[in-house]
Amino acid sequence: MSDNSYNHMCLSVLGNELRLNIIASLQTKELSVTDLCDQLGKEQSAVSHALQQLRHCSFVDYKKNGKERVYFLKSKIFKEKNKPIFELVSEHVQTYCKGKH
Ligand SMILES: [Zn+2]
Fold first, then answer.
1. Which residues of the chain have pLDDT under 70?
2. How far is the CA of 41 from the centre of ligand 1 (A)?
3. Structure confidence by residue, pLDDT tens digits, 10-37
4. Distance from Cα 8 to the centre of ligand 1, integer Å
5. What is the fold, at CATH topology level, of the domain defined by 3-97?
6. For residue 31, which of 35, 44, 49, 73 is within the disulfide window of CB 3.0 to 4.6 Å?
7. What's the CA angle centered on 64, arms 52 and 94, to 5 degrees?
8. Going by C-beta distance under 8 Å and a sequence separation of 6 or more, which residues neighbour residue 23?
9. How far apart are the CA of 30 and the centre of ligand 1, in A?
């Protein structure tokens, strides 16, 4: 498969306002699902579903804090806020997603 078909799959995960907002929130700090719901003003079911998709693509992951899941930005590439999104996605694919979709 060409590089662009991988880019396409990761881009489609990002092509959603809620998922992009979650990434933006996690660029600043680690957050629980409840924190994310409060911050973004969204239902828990919507946020959990979005997190599941982001996790599948290695953008985020979580660690357990008691019963709570605390999410963090797994893709260190996305900590660079000032790079163009296309560049970020290409690097993300090469590092985390190539051959895994
Ligand atoms: Zn991916």
1. 1-3, 5
2. 26
3. 889 999 999 999 999 999 999 999 999 9
4. 9
5. Arc Repressor Mutant, subunit A (1.10.10)
6. 35
7. 45
8. 14, 54, 59, 60, 73, 78
9. 21
